[in-house]
Design brief:
Elements: E1 2-7, E2 18-21, E3 35-40, E4 43-53, E5 70-71, H1 80-93, H2 97-104, E6 114-119, H3 125-130, H4 132-140, E7 143-144, H5 145-151, H6 153-156, H7 159-164, E8 168-173, E9 182-188, H8 192-201, H9 207-218, E10 223-225, H10 226-233, H11 237-245, E11 249-255, H12 276-291, E12 295-301, H13 307-320, E13 324-328, H14 336-346, E14 350-353, H15 359-370, E15 376-379, E16 391-397, H16 414-425, E17 428-433, H17 438-445, E18 450-454, E19 465-470, H18 471-476, H19 485-497, E20 500-505, E21 514-516, E22 533-535, E23 540-542, E24 549-551, E25 564-566, H20 571-581, E26 587-590, H21 600-609, E27 615-618, E28 631-637, H22 650-663, E29 673-678, H23 684-690, H24 694-708, E30 715-723, H25 726-741, E31 749-761, E32 764-773, H26 779-794, E33 800-805
Helix pairs in contact: 1-2, 8-9, 12-13, 22-23, 23-24, 25-26
This protein binds adenosine-5'-diphosphate (ADP) and zinc ion (2 copies).
Amino acid sequence: MIAHIIVDVPVSRTNRPFDYRVPAWLSPLIQVGSRVVVPFGPRKLQGYVVGISENTEHGVDEDRLKDVEQVMDDTPPLTAELLKMSEWMSGQYLCPWVTAVQAMLPAVLKGKAQKWLTASDQLDERICANSGLLWELLRKRQLPLAEVEKQFPDEYMLIPGWIHSGLITTEYQVKDRITKKQQSFVKCLLSPEQMMEVLGSLSARADQMRRVLELFLQHPADSFSIQTMRDEFGVNRSALKSMEAKGWVAIEQVEVYRDPYANRRFVERKKPAFTLRQQEVLAPIIRSIQESSYASFLLHGVTGSGKTEVYLEAIEHTLAKGREAIFLVPEISLTPQMVERFKERFGADVAVLHSALSQGERYDEWRKIIRKQVKVVVGARSAIFAPFQNVGLIVIDEEHESSYKQEETPRYHAREVALWRAKENGAVLLMGSATPALETYALATRGRYTLLEMPDRVGHRPMPQVHVVDMREELHAENRSMFSRLLHEMIADRLKKQEQMVIFLNRRGFSTFVMCRSCGYTLNCIHCDISLTYHKSNHTARCHYCGYTIAQPAHCPECQSEHIRFFGTGTQKVEAELAKLFPGIRVIRMDVDTTSRKGSHEELLSKFRQGQGDVLLGTQMIAKGLDFPRVTLAGIIAADTSLHLPDFRAAEKTFQLLTQVGGRAGRHELEGDVVIQTYTPEHYSIIHATRHDYPAFYQDEMLQRRRTGYPPYYRLVLITFSHEDVPVVIRGAHVLGDFLRQRVASTTILLGPVASPIARVKDRFRFQIMLKYRDEPNVTELLTQATAAFEEWNKQQKVLMTIDVDPYVLL
Ligand code: ADP
Ligand code: ZN
Ligand code: ZN
């Protein structure tokens, strides 16, 4: 028996299946989709079986093939569909096949988790008699497979057969599962300067303390669990205890987040009587679900129009057909509220995949899917790879969200993968948004997706009143505060009425750079060409790309002036200003700093929900999916910061953000106001957002895209090169660029090589080539050839090259 196997060597030369012989003892276990260990050159590698045949192809002598050494799982983790999908992704996104496969599997299956043997209940007496001791042990307890291999080498060879006939099972046991609800966290009590000082005075033997301090210099605001300290940084409790005794760190008992649904029973919730509009929208969706044939819909509905109820109903009909449903949400809107709505409706049929789960918990959810214990998966981007066998519906909520695009290899877009999967399965694809991506809406207007509109809020609740404030006029009126007079007034009003508000800052720390007022010197990262961001809590400046952190200098390194300080507005600064202007105001700040610990995101939200805060203050993070009945004011500070990004989607993103934030206010009985503060009130994205007018925005923005040659009129491929030496990276970029230039269609535009907008990251210089094309049917094939030519040149050079098809991040 021959197995065709792709191996975990992600370069294009090895991007094809290799043949291995299957030894007889493994043949009961191996299947297409199995994960295996095979010898490859001098190494042992993980691989995946993509085909099995009785004989070798092309008359190769079977005896010359190497043997498969191990089959890793009792049942293959890859279904036939996922395997096919991974092959398609490899072609579509120009990544190694094996990389696409790995993106589909939970991290546990890539790590070094221990595997254990468990005897099943019905032991066969005959086998027990044959292999006495091992079975006696197994009857008492589970055994680690590695130990069995050592102690019982003969029986070890029989294990695949036993698994095959159901006598035993094997499974991974993941240590990271959190069993305790209380955990000890360590946090640093020293300022960065003090840390530097202590570091200088430590004896050479105080290795663990040094590591702790270096860690806190990098992450001054964070806490680390004692477990993490031990497992990841090799620091034991006694070292931490003596640091605590010296007053350098504090060890605190912290309530940790665990599966918040584990000990809850949900009361089944009845669905509402649908509005007329919801019925109209549901009719064609349900018809397609009944027909079990491919269909795709774009549900364009304002926030609060009842889209989620439509999704839930569609899922119910899918389950009634005996099929399964995948529901994708952007990571950030995978809130307990959202999950609750699913649990209330579908109970234990739901698996939830979100990033706050530990690896072990994720693996558990994934196994529920592959064992067919659930019928619905709710999750972020990668949930599109749920190993269901009979997908009947894929819902993508907030389909315009850029988090559906993966920014590392494989650089896939979940919407595109979903489309493939829906077609492959004869399933329904239902995308929803209040502000569809231009690409999606354009396809819908051309009939590729059925367009369904829900222009009104449920129960005719009015859209919030939007007020645009021109901040230039505020300045003329001598108001130098970051709050306009109108916003100030409205905040005071809500405080008096005890209503809640959200205040939204475009991008965390976007312009909180440190600059010298005397000479104009700015603090930049020494590894990356971007400015450092000021963090008030510990007076440090930090690079958001590589984590490089320094203490805020007291004097300008350039001219020694004392007038060096931070500029611009970060969430911390807004918080400070609110406290100053409204004494006693209770602010809950949500940004990357306050939500880095697992579960903190949910904790802060539930505090706000319980009324423990007047203001929810934050970045992008608070713009989406939240539904708080008592919020009647949404304030947007510096609405236009996102307009000035070097990104052709800047206007679209601004429109989306303003619409989303506006949607947070007045969703329930109380009516709401939205205040948009801007320096460019005349910009069309701001004008149309004010009027809740998506179609008008779409028209204007499409004109721009046509004029500038960007999607949806053109498609893009971004190729980025990086290396420590400028001449080397330029040469590499030219090798690939020249190859392409000679071969692309005359209508295709090839830009570059030029330095990337961020020209250096982590001491590597970056160059890029951009391909803009309309009629280039074989673009992936062309790029594959170009990659091969480049890799030939690159053998000695080690230039890193990435290809991003339909890129979102153009930096
Ligand atoms: P969207 O997903 O479009 O923002 P939701 O589905 O969350 O809208 O609905 C907004 C609010 O209206 C929710 O509180 C929801 O429970 C309620 N709602 C939705 N449909 C109905 C209906 N047919 N009758 C009564 N309330 C509804
Ligand atoms: Zn200076
Ligand atoms: Zn950096």
